[in-house]
Amino acid sequence: MHDGASGETVAQDVGEAVSEIRRDLAAAYQLIALEGMDDGIYTHISARLPDGPGGEKRFLLNPFGLRFDEVTAANLVTIDETGAVIDDPYGAGVNAAGFTIHSAVHMARHDAACVLHTHTVAGVAISSIKEGLLPLNQWSAQFYDRIAFHDYEGIALNLEERERIVADLGTKQVMLLRNHGTLLLGRSVAEAVKLAINLERSCKAQVAALGMGLTPVVLPHDVAEHTASQYQKAYDSFEIGGKPDPEWAAELRRLDACAPGYRG
Ligand SMILES: [Zn+2]
Prior knowledge:
This protein is α+β, with helices and mostly antiparallel strands. Helices cover 44% and strands 12% of the residues.
């Protein structure tokens, strides 16, 4: 039974959840820019919003043409699963074509609160070698045996390739798009950003280690798998266990100190 008070409480809870997602997604754009992981106005980070009153799917995306460091909680655009605009405070629309991969992943993977795609030099480099990411250090061990691959077919805009991307992704959270970049799924925006930053560091470290021309020490299977499960447990404690995430809080403080406008 719903009385007026409980209805208002539900609306208030949804409103707070939406505000938090907007803040976190704006922070994600800013942090990816701060880490030098953006690529002009290309690539996207999308976040799923609670369903609309009629059960309609809704997502947030950056306004078309803005740099990542210009994205704020207030100018994010609300769209449906086709990329059609529902709410656009900034008025520049979205890159609907760029949302096509995100949309396919969001519709197939309801566990993904956030889909984050990057083109970074290190990520593209590792995506371009047959061996992919090796378990060479603690950062990369967390991804051991947890990375999906999708072969390059050209700029991914057509429906058939979207289906192959979703099939190649399977149940994984991390995918190397061969000769192209990376794709991360987070059960929260925070998780997607943390995975992206850790993957970037892993890729940079591999490029550096292999670039020395000396003999790399590749972690043995058991150690790499053990380390990956330790990381998984820590990620689960925030996403499933409800533990407050001090790392994300620290990242928000980093932005509050250097780019406080993201909240506006
Ligand atoms: Zn791309």
